[in-house]
Amino acid sequence: MSATTNTQARVTTTTLSDMKVAGDPIVMVTAYDTPSARLAGEAGVDAILVGDSLGMTVLGYDSTLPVTLDDMLRHTAAVVRGTSRALVIADMPFLTFQVSPKEAVRNAGRLLAEAGATAVKLEGGASIAPTVERMVAAGIPVMGHIGLTPQSVNVFGGFKVQGRETDSAIALVQDALALEAAGAFAVVLELVPAELAAIISEELSIPTIGIGAGAGCDGQVQVFHDLLGLGTFMPKHAKRYAAVGDAIRTAISSYAAEVRSGAFPAEEHLSHLDADVVGELETALPLTPGEDV
Ligand code: KIV
Question: Which one is catalytic: 190, 195, 258, 267?
Answer without folding.
Answer: 190
